């Protein structure tokens, strides 16, 4: 297997530190609001990586954090040590306390993972459950001479770190950040790149109810320290894979490396860094101010199958930006429906098993997975397999089971007693909904031939229409 390692900026052969065991950490959400579909692309990438490791018989321990304190709004301006605490800001907006915000959006995130068929990590670590570990790590950093105190917190001394022969910012261009340009000037900071390990409440600042006693005073941990403390607790001082969105390459991940390696005697922190690209929306950036920061709930409310979103993610390589539009999701929904219809023709037997067939399709699929998680190619191989009439149905069934262990599209649902699940109109894509309306208009006009033509079009998209005394019902064969 080969991955593009952001640390070396090249593809590298994957060699775990302690094969067949793999330690992997994913930067999860700050649970102050619903994640966007851009965020979900990263978490789906994480799931695909874990599934791929398991496919190749690695024993994976997967840890994901939930940030419920310390993530300040200043990170949007280039300095994550300034601004308001995102949890406190959301709490004030919704008229509740920060703990309620964490509970609400944390539960929603964990519940929503199943909607995209994302496997639950082995460890879900909340920052507020690991304050002791964060304080202990800051103590180590301080003891080694890399921390200093200001009026508003305890900071990591980047210049000191570099003066001892360490490289800072390998993942990004942090050395180009200029104080006063994008970063708010803090006269007590020794350097503009220094970042907060622990924050105090400023005089006159409204205190939120997430605060703890520490050797330096009452306050709360900085954003970056949590991931170092929690990953090292569950995976050790060194581990194999750290994954996140490409926005974390600029500050968060370089800061993790610096604080972790100085605390452990400069042991290399993580061997492979994997970053997923941004998701575009309508050809541009996504933002709440633009009204296009769509969530998975928006996808559901518009009547789409949430696995169509997963299918959409699979259509683009994780290191390349892909453009989300509702029309693109329509296409993904139709593609998923057609795929399910083709798979339903295979007639899965009770003894059908994964990975039993060793042929060119299996080899090609594994080659695509091994080439930096090439999911578009993997999906194309599945389609080619289904269209190959020289392969027996039983062999196809075995390979589909095997491939879907990674793709995670639920192509085989053994727990469904009746494969023809009745679905509602609201679950149909826009294209199918329009065809349904057209058919009803033709039927009302008694233009039966045109109505049948539309019915056939709907059938080509993977649906069967059933006219009942209670109205029209739609069936899809999973």
TrEMBL record:
SUPFAM superfamilies given in the database record: Anticodon-binding domain of a subclass of class I aminoacyl-tRNA synthetases, Nucleotidylyl transferase
Catalytic activity: tRNA(Cys) + L-cysteine + ATP = L-cysteinyl-tRNA(Cys) + AMP + diphosphate
Enzyme Commission no: 6.1.1.16
GO molecular function term, any single one: zinc ion binding
Keyword tags: Aminoacyl-tRNA synthetase, ATP-binding, Cytoplasm, Ligase, Metal-binding, Nucleotide-binding, Protein biosynthesis, Zinc
Source domain of life: Bacteria
Top EC class, one word: ligase
Subcellular localization, as worded in the UniProt entry: Cytoplasm
Residues that coordinate or bind Zn(2+): 27, 227, 252, 256
Boundaries of every tRNA synthetases class I catalytic domain copy: 16-333
InterPro entries: Cys-tRNA-ligase, Cys-tRNA/MSH_ligase, CysS_C, Rossmann-like_a/b/a_fold, tRNA-synt_1_cat_dom, tRNAsynth_Ia_anticodon-bd
Positions annotated to bind ATP: 288
Cofactor info, note text: Binds 1 zinc ion per subunit.
Motif ('KMSKS' region): 285-289
A GO CC annotation given for this chain: cytosol
Keyword DNA-binding on entry: no
UniProt domain Cysteinyl-tRNA ligase anticodon binding: residue ranges: 426-470
Pfam families: CysS_C (PF23493), tRNA-synt_1e (PF01406)
Named cofactor requirement(s): Zn(2+)
Signal peptide: none
Summary of subunit composition and partner proteins: Monomer.
NCBIfam families: cysS (TIGR00435)
PANTHER family referenced in this protein's UniProt entry, alphabetically: CYSTEINE--TRNA LIGASE, CYTOPLASMIC, CYSTEINYL-TRNA SYNTHETASE
Name this protein carries in UniProt: Cysteine--tRNA ligase
Organism: candidate division WWE3 bacterium CG_4_9_14_0_2_um_filter_35_11
